[in-house]
Amino acid sequence: MFYTTLQVALGGAIGAALRFLAGVGVLKLTGSGFPLAIMSVNIFGSFLMGLFVVIAAKTSNTHLSPFIMTGVLGGFTTFSAFSLEAFTLFERGQTGAAGLYVLASVILSIAGLIAGVMIARGLFA
After folding, report:
1. What count of Cα atoms within 13 Å lies in the side-chain half-sphere of residue 86?
2. 110: helix, coil or strand?
3. Same domain as 64, residue 6
């Protein structure tokens, strides 16, 4: 368990650093205030997650999942694991559950952020 946790931590550090660098690079290229960098990272990371999950299964390399999927891609994106879970539900024929998962995740995550902002603003008012 310790070794797996270490893999996740190392991968997460690599992924987070790559996300930061990608964000800086996209911002320098576009100069846009629109969150294009994070959107691009999430799309590309989700694409990589899809590639990895199939390739790892076909080549018996699922032992790399904690490092690659949870660590690197989890640190790189803010969306790849969410995308994989939503797709897995959909692929299993659980379309309603997939839709509920997507809607609830997005709406409740934004609501959670709003609640946190409101509480923090109240504390510092």
Report:
1. 15
2. helix
3. yes
The answer to whether 12 touches 74, Cβ cutoff 8 Å, is yes
Domain that holds residue 23: 2-78
Tens digit of each residue's pLDDT (9 = 90 or more) over 95-114: 999 999 999 999 999 998 89
Both tokens assigned to 45? 């990371």
pLDDT per residue as tens digits for the range 20-75: 999 899 889 988 777 788 888 988 998 999 999 999 999 999 999 999 999 999 99
DSSP H or E segment with residue 37: helix 36-58
Give the amino acid at 105: S
Structure tokens at 54: 């199939």
